[in-house]
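Note to self: user wants both folds in one dump. Writing first protein now.
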Amino acid sequence: MTQDNFSQVTEFILLGLSDTQELQFLFFTLFLLAYAMVLLGNLLIIVTVRADPKLSSPMYFLLCNLSFIDICYTSVTAPRVLVALLSGHKAIAFEGCITQLFFLHFVGSSEMFLLTVMAFDRYTAICRPLHYTAIMARRACWALVAACWVGGFIHSIVQTVLTLQLPFCGPNMIHSYFCDMLPVVRLACTDTTLTEWLMASNSGLISLGCFLVLVASYMLILAKVRACLYQGHWKALSTCASHVMVVTLLFMPCIFTYLRPAGTLPTNKYICVIYTTFSPMMNPLIYTLRSSEVKESMWRLWKRCRAS
């Protein structure tokens, strides 16, 4: 497939969430508040974990990386949406669209892999406590996080290459507020059945596979807790409850969106808001409200800042 086959389309038009002026102002306000909460909440977690030596366990190391990923993930779409809502300029260059698609899947799939690693961390801490220190050593944690990023890159580069092989020579209206695989593929001037199935197998099966691994780990944790009902295990189970909430917010919309070819059902752009904005916004609230150690560390950090 040569460059001339798809060079006729130089830009796409992102139709956004609504054409109504009043709703656009409302969406701008909501996206701005959500993006501000994502930045402030996740940055606060990163600073707190880095500043407090008591939060040096693998769980908080992984939580710090999750916060960094959430910032990157939301930053792929939110700034562009805010500019479009404020200025009314909905066009995005072809290269910019492909770049956004690449980083969306790169960071998004890395987050899925990281959540799976976090579930493995909780399983090891609860079900194999005597081996926890050896299994989740700092070098192993770094290797697992690096593997998440490498896996996300491989997944995303496959999606991007499949998209670039398609010819775009006609319609350029994307019925969404960001460039994603499914709405972009629908605009191709060729039969995309095979490409759609390949993409669904890639994105959808990754989402479903990670979700099933997570569910299995929670079932094992629940079985262990039921057999050993004492305070330490209930505390660990409480930590897992916050993880379950994050997983539900991220994985269920992704499975619904990606585990099907592009032409079978229309993409619900409002569902996309859940995993691109709402889930990263809720992560800091869920983890800090469910973790007394993080709240205490934040309070100590606040007192040190006031005293300095």
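First done. Writing the second protein, which came from a different request thread.
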Amino acid sequence: MEMALLGSHIPSEVGLQLLLCPLGSNIVLRTACCSIGIGLPVYSTFKAIETKDQNEQQRMLLYWAAYGSFSIVEVFSDKLLSWCPLYYHMKFAFLVWLQLPSADGAKQIYVNYLRPFFQRHQARVDHIMGFAYGEMVKLISAHQAEIQFVRNTLAKIMGSVDQMFRGSVTPGQPQQHSAIEGPLRTASDTGSDRDD
């Protein structure tokens, strides 16, 4: 009886120890940060959109604005700060703080830092964004053939993956078809033709 009670708490204790251990693997902490920072908010955003909850939608917009700003800063500082002890622990705690409705961290970041910054520099940011958008449109229109090729290739790959998941084609089993006639017909296919 006592062993069963102890056994039920072992997985959660091991996970907590892995997460909180200062010398623990950064892989575990990075996975936790990705799950908390992106995975959970993506699902929460989906729920907010589907339920049409305006308050939750605004909360998630504030979160994504704060998270995006944090990600931009982190691109430049991550290589230096990741060497600091407990960096990923602090990042994990920060991401949890951003999302907690009781702490309202994302709203605090937005109201205290992002909103004043963008209000002061809105004209300059609009100019930069317009220029970047124009250059992106030029780049895309200059490479339409390559983009269409990649799009078609991805569509074929996704179609093959979809067929594999649906069970019509199993990996390692060649599809039976003639290069000219397409897939071979089965007895059930030929019977339906006779009915027509």
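Dump finished. Worth passing along: The longest strand covers residues 177-178.
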